Amino acid sequence: MHDIFISYSRQDKPWVDTLAAALIAQGYAVWWDAELLPGQNFENAIKHVLDNARCVVTVWSTASVDSLWVREESSYALQRNVLIPVLYQPVTLPMPFGRIHTADLQGWQGDTNDPRFQTLLRGIAQYCPRTTETEENAPEESPADVDPLPDERTSGESVIHRWKWFAAALFTAIGLIFTAAGGYNDLKQVWEEFTSPTLLLDYEPKGNILVGDSIYLTFSASHKGYATLWNQDAKGVVTKILPEKGSSTLHFTPQYNGETIELQATSGNGSDRFILLWTPEGKPDHLGYSQFDNEAAFNAALKKLEVDGLKKQEIIVPVYQTNP
């Protein structure tokens, strides 16, 4: 079992290598994907370590705040209540991570005597108590120089709990105002928008993608329901990707609400368009065909689903024959 899992963007790898080396020098077993062995399935390997690591250090930077992988790993760590965020560059953190105490290591270059690094170590020690031997070898820290982490870190459970109370209080206040003004229907519309399902569809990597390159496509939904995943190639043909066989739709539940799949880029000097369709519980039937000759035929079929609470999310992935 690893003590620390580091979640980061590959663009920050030189700095993360320094951070990992410093933590290893403190006696911790550290994992970051540089440790993947040839032939390993990276997604399965990462999930296994993420499940078992004692804590997860997320490195926030201008690159990582836009990384779907970093957000997913950090969200999972937050659910486990083992997240320790670190600020590498000045950025606005995505919700709800901005509400969590973050160790500020901006400008840190590897000095293990730096009080800010010592603060990080104290945060990690809450999950991974250092051995006597490790503590004796570690540099001494002066209480006057160290800005201690709070005794009780903000856990994923408490964040969710606070958001629920905040939402309840907010809508209670809005309800009183709208009720006094006779605006019940307006309030109902606001509440429906607030609680409406959210679809996630994204891909990695974000650089130049060539024909034959692997695309890692991640999709999910915030609510239970039924989904299908489609692809429109450069010629306009729309084809269902998932599910491939068997059921006509994927059933999203609390146990399964999406996944990451590997695809091959095909549309050279054009684009791959991916479309995620979702309908709520009780509406399992989507489109009757698995392929449409053009976008117009596909959109015409979609109109029949709109009455069933259809939600749609799409992204366009540029694909090139050669590097532009």
From TrEMBL:
Q: Which Pfam families match?
A: TIR_2 (PF13676)
Classification via InterPro entries: TIR_dom, Toll_tir_struct_dom_sf
Acidic residues bias spans: 134-144
Entry-linked Gene3D superfamilies: Toll/interleukin-1 receptor homology (TIR) domain
Region annotation (Disordered) maps to: 131-153
Q: What is this protein called?
A: TIR domain-containing protein
A Gene Ontology biological process in which this protein takes part is: signal transduction
Indicate the segments forming the TIR domain, all copies.
Answer: 1-125
The cross-references to PROSITE patterns, in alphabetical order and at most eight, read: TIR
